[in-house]
Design goal:
single chain, 96 residues, alpha+beta, copper amine oxidase-like fold, five-stranded antiparallel sheet, 2 helices, 5 strands, 33% strand
């Protein structure tokens, strides 16, 4: 059931990104969508039982309504790891 996947995702986000703002935006029988903002980065994470976790960047030139996910991973740990990589890259490339 996707409620378990949602709980697992929230637990991983709380553990790895305790300062993140996490908002459930929709839940259906097929899955759910959560928007996450942390350190100036915003993503939408979708879970679907048949596909796993998809991460889409929000804002800037990266996002486009109706496009596929930027990353797809099988577990909450892997998708949160991708988000952590994005945060680290953006921090390292910001002008001082």
């Amino acid at each position: 059931m996707h409620i378990d996947a949602e709980s697992r995702l929230r637990a991983v986000l709380d553990e790895r990104l305790p300062n993140a703002d996490v908002n459930l935006t929709d839940r259906t029988e097929r899955g759910f969508w959560i928007d996450v903002t942390c350190d100036g980065c915003m993503v939408s994470i979708e879970y679907r039982r048949d596909l796993g976790f998809g991460l889409s960047l929000i804002g800037g030139d990266e996002s486009g309504y109706g496009e596929g996910h930027d990353f797809v991973e099988p577990s909450p740990e892997a998708i949160v790891g991708r988000f952590q990589e994005i945060i680290a890259i953006r921090k390292s490339t910001k002008p001082a």
